[in-house]
């Protein structure tokens, strides 16, 4: 079973390198309930950062950090990295990419191999309970939308309150 996780990871990396998402997505090429995020809600675009951890870890942990970059064209890139804690952490670095599909408060990440992860959305938070395919263990995941801040040099100065 671990070999399938390795194969899935390898295929995702090949898809990332070869550019599996095509430019120019049209609304008419999707059914009504599977519309790319760009056509449903532009607020998904941007960077989402967070972490994941194994549910009920005892001797071995599966903890890491994740960054999800959603582009305005409805494509995404996800990067997982191992948390810098403990020596018994089983988490493995991984990257994958594909398209984002939004249905109500669900955000589905789909790769060339098929559906990969479904996240629930509440405000500026995405969260999930899923299986880590590399470790084959249940994990919880939470990501927060990173707001883009205007550069101080380009921002107009605010009047003094005094």
Describe the structure.
With 162 residues, this protein is mainly beta. It has a single domain (2-18, 34-146), classed as Beta Barrel (Lipocalin). The protein is 13% helix and 43% strand. The chain contains 2 helices and 9 strands, in the order H-E-H-E-E-E-E-E-E-E-E. It has helices at residues 2-18, 37-40, and strands at 35-36, 46-54, 63-70, 75-82, 94-103, 106-111, 114-122, 125-132, 137-146. It has an 8-stranded antiparallel beta barrel with strand order 2-3-4-5-6-7-8-9. Strand 8 and strand 9 form a beta hairpin.
Mean pLDDT rating = 68
Low-confidence stretches: 1-32, 149-162
How many discrete domains?
Answer: 1
Q: Which CATH architecture would you pick?
A: Beta Barrel
CA-based gyration radius: 18 Å
Structural class: mainly beta
Tell me the helix content: 10-25%
CATH C-level: Mainly Beta
- SSE order, as H and E? HEHEEEEEEEE
Quote the beta fraction: 35-45%
Note the total helix count.
Answer: 2
Give the biggest sheet: 8 strands, antiparallel, barrel
Which shape, going by the Cα principal axes?
globular
Terminal residue distance: 66 Å
CATH topology: Lipocalin
Record the SSE blueprint.
Blueprint: H1 2-18, E1 35-36, H2 37-40, E2 46-54, E3 63-70, E4 75-82, E5 94-103, E6 106-111, E7 114-122, E8 125-132, E9 137-146
Antiparallel strand pairs: 1-5, 2-3, 2-9, 3-4, 4-5, 5-6, 6-7, 7-8, 8-9
Kindly summarize this structure in a few lines:
Helices cover 13% and strands 43% of the residues. With 162 residues, the chain is mostly beta strands.
């Amino acid at each position: 079973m671990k070999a399938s996780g390795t194969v899935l990871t390898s295929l995702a990396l090949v898809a990332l390198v070869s550019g599996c998402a095509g430019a120019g997505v049209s609304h008419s090429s999707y059914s009504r309930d599977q519309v790319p995020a760009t056509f449903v809600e532009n607020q998904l675009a941007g960077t989402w950062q967070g972490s994941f951890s194994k549910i009920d870890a005892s001797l071995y942990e599966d903890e890491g950090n994740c960054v999800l970059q959603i582009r305005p064209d409805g494509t995404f890139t996800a990067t997982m990295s191992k948390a810098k804690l403990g020596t018994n952490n089983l988490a493995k670095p991984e990257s994958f990419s594909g398209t984002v599909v939004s249905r109500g408060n669900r955000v589905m990440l789909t790769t060339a191999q098929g559906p990969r992860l479904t996240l629930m959305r509440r405000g500026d938070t995405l969260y999930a309970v899923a299986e880590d395919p590399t470790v084959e263990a249940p994990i919880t995941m939470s990501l927060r939308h990173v707001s883009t801040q205007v550069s101080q040099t380009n921002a107009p100065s605010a009047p003094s309150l005094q």
